[in-house]
Amino acid sequence: MGRVFLFLLVLLAVWLLWRAFGPGSQQRFQSAEANQPPAIKGPDDDEEFLWNIEKTRFKERRAREEAERRAREEEELRKKFGEDLPDSDNPPES
After folding, report:
1. Torsions phi, psi of 40, nearest 5?
2. What whole-number distance in Å separates Cα of residue 45 and Cα of residue 40?
3. Residues 31, 26: Cα–Cα separation, whole Å
4. Helices marked H in the chain — which ranges?
5. pLDDT the model gives residue 62
6. What digits encode the pLDDT tens for the residues 22-68?
7. What residues does each domain of the chain span?
8. What is the reported pTM?
9. How far apart are CA 13 and CA 49, in angstroms?
10. 64: closest CA among 52, 72, 74?
11. DSSP state of 45
12. In whole angstroms, what is the distance from residue 29 CA to residue 22 CA?
Protein backbone atom coordinates (compact mmCIF):
# COMPACT_ATOMS: atom_id res chain seq x y z
CA MET A 1 0.00 0.00 0.00
CA GLY A 2 2.88 2.38 0.80
CA ARG A 3 4.39 1.84 -2.65
CA VAL A 4 1.12 2.75 -4.36
CA PHE A 5 0.84 5.91 -2.26
CA LEU A 6 4.46 6.85 -3.04
CA PHE A 7 3.88 6.18 -6.74
CA LEU A 8 0.79 8.47 -6.70
CA LEU A 9 2.78 11.25 -4.98
CA VAL A 10 5.56 11.00 -7.58
CA LEU A 11 2.99 10.98 -10.36
CA LEU A 12 1.30 14.05 -8.87
CA ALA A 13 4.67 15.86 -8.57
CA VAL A 14 5.52 15.09 -12.20
CA TRP A 15 2.10 16.31 -13.34
CA LEU A 16 2.44 19.57 -11.35
CA LEU A 17 5.94 20.20 -12.72
CA TRP A 18 4.71 19.52 -16.25
CA ARG A 19 1.86 22.02 -15.80
CA ALA A 20 4.18 24.63 -14.31
CA PHE A 21 7.16 24.34 -16.65
CA GLY A 22 6.00 22.26 -19.60
CA PRO A 23 5.17 23.36 -23.14
CA GLY A 24 2.64 26.17 -23.25
CA SER A 25 3.23 27.35 -19.70
CA GLN A 26 5.09 30.44 -20.85
CA GLN A 27 2.19 31.46 -23.08
CA ARG A 28 -0.30 31.07 -20.23
CA PHE A 29 1.70 33.33 -17.94
CA GLN A 30 2.53 35.94 -20.58
CA SER A 31 -1.07 36.34 -21.73
CA ALA A 32 -2.18 37.07 -18.15
CA GLU A 33 0.56 39.66 -17.68
CA ALA A 34 0.07 41.29 -21.10
CA ASN A 35 -3.53 42.28 -20.35
CA GLN A 36 -2.63 44.31 -17.27
CA PRO A 37 -1.07 47.78 -17.52
CA PRO A 38 2.26 48.16 -15.74
CA ALA A 39 1.73 48.93 -12.08
CA ILE A 40 3.13 52.19 -10.76
CA LYS A 41 5.09 51.19 -7.70
CA GLY A 42 6.62 54.52 -6.80
CA PRO A 43 6.98 58.11 -7.98
CA ASP A 44 9.99 57.22 -10.10
CA ASP A 45 7.76 54.91 -12.19
CA ASP A 46 5.14 57.58 -12.85
CA GLU A 47 5.87 59.29 -16.18
CA GLU A 48 3.72 62.32 -15.37
CA PHE A 49 5.54 62.87 -12.08
CA LEU A 50 8.94 62.63 -13.78
CA TRP A 51 7.80 65.01 -16.53
CA ASN A 52 6.65 67.58 -13.94
CA ILE A 53 10.01 67.38 -12.18
CA GLU A 54 11.82 67.91 -15.48
CA LYS A 55 9.60 70.90 -16.36
CA THR A 56 10.16 72.48 -12.94
CA ARG A 57 13.93 72.08 -13.19
CA PHE A 58 13.92 73.51 -16.70
CA LYS A 59 11.92 76.57 -15.58
CA GLU A 60 14.25 77.14 -12.62
CA ARG A 61 17.32 76.82 -14.82
CA ARG A 62 15.81 79.19 -17.40
CA ALA A 63 14.99 81.77 -14.70
CA ARG A 64 18.51 81.50 -13.25
CA GLU A 65 20.07 81.94 -16.70
CA GLU A 66 17.84 84.96 -17.36
CA ALA A 67 18.86 86.55 -14.04
CA GLU A 68 22.53 85.95 -14.84
CA ARG A 69 22.08 87.46 -18.31
CA ARG A 70 20.43 90.58 -16.89
CA ALA A 71 23.20 90.94 -14.30
CA ARG A 72 25.85 90.68 -17.04
CA GLU A 73 24.06 93.25 -19.20
CA GLU A 74 23.75 95.63 -16.27
CA GLU A 75 27.43 95.17 -15.43
CA GLU A 76 28.39 95.86 -19.05
CA LEU A 77 26.29 99.04 -19.03
CA ARG A 78 27.95 100.15 -15.80
CA LYS A 79 31.39 99.61 -17.30
CA LYS A 80 30.41 101.34 -20.52
CA PHE A 81 28.75 104.43 -19.01
CA GLY A 82 30.52 104.53 -15.67
CA GLU A 83 29.22 104.25 -12.16
CA ASP A 84 26.62 107.06 -12.52
CA LEU A 85 23.79 104.66 -13.45
CA PRO A 86 21.24 104.19 -10.65
CA ASP A 87 20.72 100.74 -9.20
CA SER A 88 17.58 99.06 -10.47
CA ASP A 89 17.20 97.44 -7.04
CA ASN A 90 17.55 100.69 -5.07
CA PRO A 91 15.61 103.55 -6.70
CA PRO A 92 16.71 107.08 -5.71
CA GLU A 93 14.85 108.55 -2.78
CA SER A 94 12.98 111.84 -3.23
Report:
1. -85, 115
2. 6
3. 9
4. 2-21, 25-34, 47-81
5. 97
6. 887 777 767 655 666 667 677 677 888 889 999 999 999 999 999 99
7. 56-83
8. 0.42
9. 47
10. 72
11. G
12. 12
